Amino acid sequence: MKKTIKTVCSILFVICFLVSVTACGKDDTSAYLGKEVLLLPSQLDALVQLDASSVDVAVIDSVMANFYVNSATYADKLTLVDGLVFTEETYAIAGRKGDRALMSKINEALIGIAGSDYQTVGKTYNLTSELLVTSSTANPLASAADGSWNAVVSDGKLIIGYTVYAPIAYTEDGVFMGFDTDLAKAAVGYLNERYNTSIQIEFQLIEWDSKETLLSEGTIDLIWNGLTYTDERAEAMCLSVPYMRNNQVAVIRKADVSLYPDKASMKTAIIGVEGGSAGEDVAKGQ
User: Fold this and answer.
1) Nearest to residue 55, comparing CAs of 269, 276, 277, 284?
2) In the chain, where do the E strands start and end?
3) What structural domains and CATH numbers belong to the chain?
4) Distance between CA atoms of 96 and 146, rounded to whole angstroms?
5) CA angle at residue 167 from 160 to 252, to 5 degrees?
6) How far apart are CA 10 and CA 142, in angstroms?
7) Running along the chain, 286 residues long, what does each successive block of 10 average in pLDDT?
8) Separation CA 156–CA 205 (nearest Å)
């Protein structure tokens, strides 16, 4: 009997140990904004799933939210939670950690077109109030001298990773367009004219959750697609000067305005976010 009890106790100990180890490896769901967080390939998918009632709240960028809730597709269906802003942030362009010379040229281009094409692109997409770069913005990488810029010049190609994210990058009537898309073209056009180069941009559709891996392995040269500037990313990658401001906001169905009027009311909701985005951090309380 003692042996049996000892054996049972040993088994229970192992089970408890395994459960505790497993629990340690999981997110603390008690910190979640809602009862569940659904990770999706893109922010647009979060809105699609919201419209389909697969999620209750989409946490996405205000730049995108304002564009879509006023579009013909969603104007009668979706709305922002009035007055609710989770975080205020800025966007930056990301390159590989050691590619400082390349990013220096990107900064130079943004500063060089600050009073011209930058403003024009902003007006095209109604984003003039979000613009941050001016002609007096300092380039913190001005003295960078590694070979990354020369490598791009030699290849004659700059590969930019993006996700479908209107008004940042999207296709309308068969035309690939967007704020970041047009800004990248203007910046590279400036560099080609200034340095007598002939660099062509190749836009590559990516999974946002894989962006860091694709960048580090050289599949893409830049992430230019509404990337939130964070200290953590600044440590892991080479970031441009912040070029746009943005907030994390909540989008809900218009029919649910009374259900989710504020953050506290969302505790029982299913939250849809893009995997690897700032929205995921908000939804998971990170």
Assistant:
1) 269
2) 36-40, 57-61, 78-95, 157-162, 170-172, 175-177, 200-205, 222-228, 238-239, 244-253, 270-274
3) 31-87+248-283 (no CATH), 89-246 (3.40.190)
4) 12
5) 125
6) 64
7) 41 37 53 95 95 98 90 95 95 97 98 98 92 98 97 98 93 96 98 98 95 96 95 97 96 98 97 95 93
8) 20
